[in-house]
């Protein structure tokens, strides 16, 4: 079964850091680009970052550029997101997602919740 | 990159058809055939329903269809069923390796 499982969410103070992880199984992880997408409470989805499998290029939304770092370990079938200088507006459910045709995301994890509050 | 514009809500009775719009610009929806639609039930992860404007992943009922005209994409759900009640999100490639989403539409089956 194709599966993505996120972990690492929690409560953090403004200015703090947190590292999210995503464990992949059921497919050849190294062959797919992977992304993080977040959803603030009661809001729509927001793309955060993508790590291309083929070019190894990394892309970030302007809202997180310079604060978040995406990485992947193909040997361990895992994707990570290191988040620093966290702000209240970073509060959201963070989803790990597999990239597919036409910039779609065809497999999603269950999400992990990040709350930034003092 | 600005978010795509979706109506906050839509509704229809069982068996009817409903269409949800997603409006962008020539820099995103109008410039690429990379529009996707996702269904999200409360407390659940999004599920891909449509990709590349009109294509359905395996397992998605053919009651769901997508289209695009100019800078506006649309998702049509025909033969509405109770289980179609959910939030629907559109997305589009926005150029410069950016992906942009809409604000989401809550579909209510009356």
Structural features, described:
The complex is a heterodimer of chains A (118) and B (110). Chain A has strands at residues 3-7, 10-12, 18-25, 34-39, 45-51, 58-60, 68-73, 78-83, 92-99, 105-108, 112-116. In chain A, the strands form two sheets. In chain A, strands 2, 4, 5, 6, 9, 10 and 11 form a seven-stranded mixed sheet that branches. Chain A has a four-stranded antiparallel sheet with strand order 1-3-8-7, with no helix packed on it. Chain A has 118 residues and is mostly beta strands. Chain A is globular. In chain A, a hairpin with a 6-residue loop joins β5 and β6 (58-60). By secondary structure, chain B is mostly beta strands. Helices cover 0% and strands 44% of the residues of chain B. Chain B contains no helices and nine strands. Chain B has strands spanning 9-12, 18-23, 35-40, 47-50, 64-69, 72-77, 86-93, 99-101, 105-109. In chain B, a hairpin with a 6-residue loop joins β3 and β4 (47-50). Chain B is globular, with a radius of gyration of 13 Å. The N and C termini of chain B lie far apart (35 Å). The interface between A and B is medium-sized, with 24 and 30 residues.
